[in-house]
Amino acid sequence: MKPAPSTKELLHLVDRGAEGRLLPVEAELLRAGIRRLDGSRRSAGGAQATVSRLRWQLAAAEQAIVETEADRDRLAQQAAAERRRSRAEAAEQEQRAELAEAALAAVRAQLAEAEAAGLRYANYLAAAQRACGAPNWPALADTIRDRIHPGQAA
Predict the structure, then answer these.
(1) By C-alpha distance, which of 35, 33, 41, 40 is closest to 16?
(2) Residue range(s) defining the domain that contains residue 133
């Protein structure tokens, strides 16, 4: 059997059929050509459905990408805010520690000044007692120092 006719040959056969001069062999060729074109049309319809389905899948994938990127950006902003908050808390704690250290140093300085003043007063009293002719008692300054700093007894 002869292969299906080309489009040009099909048009020629249709013209002959319209004129009423179509031979049985030509009618069979016309039918074969129509079947071929119908198969091509169906195949194209299937391809169009596939393209439509692929376009829908592509749109869904693009939407998923957009949502994923939005989630990523939102999480990155949250992480950055958390890092800033953490840094601020650390700086605040460091500042409080520095203030506490400064206050402790000031209290220690005040304590040292008070101890020195106490020892100066004790020495003054001991000198006054000796100047007045009081008996030679144990050194008052040493006694006060030993009570202030028990571990430093001479």
Answers:
(1) 33
(2) 7-152
* Tokens encoding 147: 């009570």
The pTM for the full model equals: 0.45
Query: How many structural domains does the chain have?
Result: 1
The C-alpha atoms of residue 93 and residue 82 are separated, in whole angstroms, by 16
2 inside domain: no
The answer to whether residue 49 sits within a structural domain is yes
Say which DSSP state 138 is in: S
75 within some domain: yes
Residue 125 lies in a domain: yes
The CA distance from 111 to 96, in Å, is 22
Going residue by residue through the chain, which has 154 residues, state the pLDDT in tens, using 9 for 90 and above: 566 677 777 778 787 777 888 788 888 887 888 888 888 877 777 788 888 899 999 999 999 999 999 999 999 999 999 999 999 999 999 999 999 999 999 999 999 898 888 888 877 877 777 777 776 666 666 676 677 777 665 5
Query: Left if phi > 0, otherwise alpha if psi is -120 to 50, otherwise beta: which for 153?
Result: beta
- Asked if residue 45 lies in contact with residue 25, where contact means CB atoms within 8 angstroms, the answer is no
Is 14:30 a contact under the CB 8 Å cutoff? yes
